[in-house]
Amino acid sequence: MDQQLPKHDCRNFVKKVFLVLDGELPETERNLFIMDIQRCKGCLEHFHIEKTFKDFIAAKVERKDCSEKLKQTIISQVQSNPET
Q: Domain span at residue 21?
């Protein structure tokens, strides 16, 4: 299976790790990323540390819905200040 993957590059890991953890990559690309980092012990360990930390934070954060008024205020401010 390594024959299909390009040579491992740890810089590629840094570019994609949070995209993978945030679910922002297509499944095919995510699977290739996982296969790739399994060839580098350092990248695989770093991935597990980041995933564990993200899971820990998600478990500790209490999600609350904000009011519709607050949402509209934020949207209005973002739209009126596009350069900031």
A: 2-80
Q: What is the pTM of this model?
A: 0.64
Q: Judge contact between 16 and 50, C-beta under 8 A.
A: no
The amino acid occupying position 28 is: T
**Backbone region of residue 12 per phi and psi (left: phi > 0; alpha: psi in -120 to 50; beta: other values):** alpha
Domain count, the chain: 1
| Chain segment 14-43, per-residue pLDDT in tens | 889 999 999 999 999 999 999 989 999 999
Residues 6 or more apart whose CB falls under 8 angstroms from that of 40 comprise 8, 10, 13
Query: What is d(CA 60, CA 52) in angstroms, rounded to the nearest whole number?
Result: 12
Q: How far is the C-alpha of 7 from the C-alpha of 49, rounded, in Å?
A: 23
